[in-house]
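Q: A small favour: would you put together sequence and structure tokens for a protein?
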Amino acid sequence: MQVEILSPEKRVFNGEADSVQFPGTTGSFQVLNNHAPLIASLKQGKIKLVRGKEIKLFTITGGFVEVLKNNVSVLVEGVKQI
């Protein structure tokens, strides 16, 4: 699936991922390929992107995620790759 992470300042990440874990405001959740459409709010925490054996981690202070037709759009504030 295609994942794009955007902050007010810049595009933080744009690429493919097998799974993405998010810190949702009502609990953490994971998005996989062919996930049902979804819009959710995010709280402070970590986003974990997995592609094969490669893992990318980002810390965020909050934001929103939209999942639609294998496209994951993430709008975040205060993001930093770790």
